[in-house]
Design goal:
The protein has helices spanning 14-33, 47-52, 55-58, 71-80, 106-111, 157-177, 197-202, 227-232, 250-261, 264-272, and strands at 3-4, 10-11, 38-39, 45-46, 64-66, 98-100, 116-117, 122-131, 145-155, 182-187, 208-213, 216-225, 235-236, 239-240, 242-249. By secondary structure, the chain is α+β, with helices and mostly antiparallel strands. Strands 3-8-9-15-12-11-10 form a 7-stranded mixed beta sheet. The chain has a 3-stranded antiparallel beta sheet with strand order 4-6-5. InterPro entries: aa-tRNA-synth_II/BPL/LPL.
């Protein structure tokens, strides 16, 4: 049974962890089939790296920082405050250089910054704990901290676009095997100025599409064009790299599969039986 509070903190029990690990193993097999080696990045990112992506302009409502507490000021607070302390006030916090990222793929682009890739580009996969300062939370469907698996392509334009096509085919086929009624719905990408030429192109080639089951987005495909390639100075051959990614919210898959099969154990068995 999942325990969740109204502040977005949830607990997975053994059966639910079994579902999460089983479905993530399916996603890792996809990555292996696409020659995407796995990387694990730090839980924190530098604020200045996120700012390189205009993160704080586009997502100020999601931003969360990791800050050091000043021991002396904290000690003064503890002598005066009612215990246990429910909230730590800003006046005992130090300015911070680190943030809690809201997506797993950002670290991949930072890691590749300044590099020249082979002309065909490269693939990477990672799983990370991501954090979003939402207005409300709801069980495993919307958490403060959650697990995101991403399979990322950093390559020339045609290769990055082809990654999205095969990703959509793969997820559609997977959902069919699991008996999930999935819809692919276009979303928006706020990295692009609404009045820019890129935004006009978006109407012809959506930059973000979500896999929606029962009204819940359980994954997405995202095409960033050369945005991250430009900001991080990444080349694929002689040209600025384009990027695209396939992303999965793992806890949302646990919720969706448990709903589909009636229990977490039944869901885990169904996923583990996939060839």
């Amino acid at each position: 049974m999942t325990t969740a509070t109204d502040n977005g903190l949830g607990v997975l029990d053994g059966s639910q962890l079994r579902v999460l690990r089983a479905i993530d193993a399916v996603f890792r097999r996809l990555a292996e089939g696409w020659d995407a080696p796995e990387f694990r990045f730090p839980f924190l990112m530098r604020c200045k790296d996120l700012d390189t992506f205009d993160y704080y302009d586009n997502f100020p409502h999601l931003g969360l920082a990791a800050t050091r507490l000043d021991p002396q000021r904290l000690g003064g607070l503890l002598t005066e405050a009612e215990r246990p302390v429910e909230r730590i006030p800003a006046e005992v916090m130090e300015p911070t250089a680190f943030a809690l990222p809201s997506a797993a793929c950002y670290s991949i682009y930072v890691d590749l910054a300044g590099s020249t890739l082979p002309a065909e580009g490269t693939m990477r996969t990672t799983v990370g704990t991501c954090f979003r300062n939402e207005t409300h939370y709801e069980g495993l469907q919307r958490l403060l901290g959650f697990s995101m698996r991403e399979i990322v392509c950093v390559a020339p334009e045609n290769v990055a676009k082809n990654h999205l096509l095969r990703a959509k085919d793969a997820v559609t086929a997977l959902c069919a095997e699991l008996g999930l009624d999935v819809r692919l719905e276009a979303a928006t990408d706020p990295f692009f100025d609404k009045n820019s030429g890129k935004a006009k192109m978006q109407r012809l080639f959506p930059v973000k599409e979500e896999f929606v089951v029962g009204g819940l987005a359980i994954g997405s495909v995202n095409y960033h064009r050369n945005f991250f390639g430009e900001r991080c100075g990444i080349l694929a051959g002689e040209d600025t790299a384009h990027t695209s990614c396939l992303a999965f919210g793992l806890e949302r898959w646990v919720h969706t599969l448990t709903e589909r099969f009636g229990s977490a154990d039944a869901a885990a068995s169904a996923v583990e039986s996939l060839s």
